[in-house]
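User: Fold this, then the next.

Assistant: Folding the first:
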Amino acid sequence: MGEDAKPFPEYELAGIETIARGVAIENGRVLLCRAKGSKTTYLPGGHIEFGEKGCEALRREVMEEMGVEAKVGEMLGVVENSFVQHGKPHAEINLVYAMELPANTKAEAKEGWIEFLWQRVDELETASLLPAEMAKFIKH
């Protein structure tokens, strides 16, 4: 770095993640996930890889994490989120899609660090959903 160059701010070093998330509702319940042992939940999905569309990433992530084929529908919206993780600023942009799963899909994870649950939509406030703004896509 030259004398005139300024160091990158900490938030730029932390990076911004782009994530595809899905809203799957069946029989008045929404599918949520969480890291094992965590009290907070989030919508299923995951990171969008370079060159991948959000809907493709969501299909791939659901297959990897649950072993089921998701039908990804319309984009419901975008949620920007920033927080501190492991003592460092962090940010994410969440692309949120409508999603359908095969009928009677069990909330079973294929990966050991995560778990899924079907949460009643009318009891969503008890799920500690993060970011909380995601609730607007569930109750639409």
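Now the next one, as you asked:
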Amino acid sequence: MVNDNLLGKAKRYRWIIFWTLSFGYLLVYFHRLCPAVVAVDMMRDLQASGALIGFLGAAYFYPYAAMQLPAGLLSDSWGPRNTITLFFCIALVGSIVLGMAPTVFIAILGRTMVGLGVAMLFVPTMKILAEWFHAREFAVMTGILMAVGGLGSLVAATPLVWLSSWIGWRMSFIAVGVFTLVIALLVWFIVRDKPADMGWPSPAAEPSPKAPPSITLLEGVGKVLSNPYFWPVSIWFFFDAAVFFSFGGLWGGPYLLQVYGYSKSQSGQILSMLAVGMIVGSPLLSYISTSVLRSRKKVILLSSVMVLLLTACLAFLTDRIPLGGHYAICFGLGFFSSAIVVVGFTTNKELFPVQMTGTATGLVNFFPFAGGAVFQPVLGYVLEKQGKVDGAFTLVGYQQAFLVLFLCSIIALVASFFLKETLE
């Protein structure tokens, strides 16, 4: 009876932990996509070229990609709670440095610190959820977490436009830094790595007959990298994310402002559809994959076809898209290019035994952020090469930049044909 009472406490308290971590993940997505709506202001104030602003946007992704495997190691050795708290404090400092930066190079340093800090949330959170939630609940919790990340994308659009119009983009980033500190403190005081830390039994406990054999880190890395089906997933992640992060995370905002002359507020409203697509698509695509088509591969393949069509519109109808078309394109990219990663992560997870899930997730999670890191500055270089007219990039520049994204979507589609069907 006493044990049942403690188990009940654990089941209630885990939701407090989950929502605390979810608000942290909201912040991760906010930082990831926020440059899109303030990129033009930053270029003006920092007197930066398109290529440099591209590197500024991508500076988040380099450390984020590089820290995925170390995130798992630190979570295992030092604990998820300690790891998240410390690195969110680094993100706090980075956000303040970004807001106060006198030059674009200092701004790049600040954004690099932000990327380093928030990189340490996703993998530690997966470890915490595995301790507090049963395996059959895990996929649902991951889907909810991704949907909350979509809310972060939403906040990075119109609300950031309002805030930056009110107090400027610099003070906006400083304000976000303060909020980052609040999240770090909440994680420290509320989150616990496992129920045993509070003297409670684990709701995730299995009455399993036999524990699976343990695998060392090096063995796990070797098994993942030597699996031929790991690489099509990774290539698909790299080029699919290149499309979403390049347009939704940076260059979509300047495109709407400079080619169509939309106001900053209207551009923010259009870009907010990226988040709406992600919020709607994350649970829906998972449901379609599991219960309707009963296939991971078919859902990823169909989504890749849709991304190809969307980037074709951007590349070949660059200045002839009606207002409603821009809303539809942004919703479609959020749905088919961002929300689909839930199915991608599930596919990768199902390629390997359960005791290798952390290693496999950490390794594959490198690729989407590497895609963003590479192609944000590539598009900036392409835009800059075509020159400017009255301080704005040219239509030809955007056409060539979006042609790069069209080629990325072709490669992602080809990779999706080579995926292994893991839902059997």
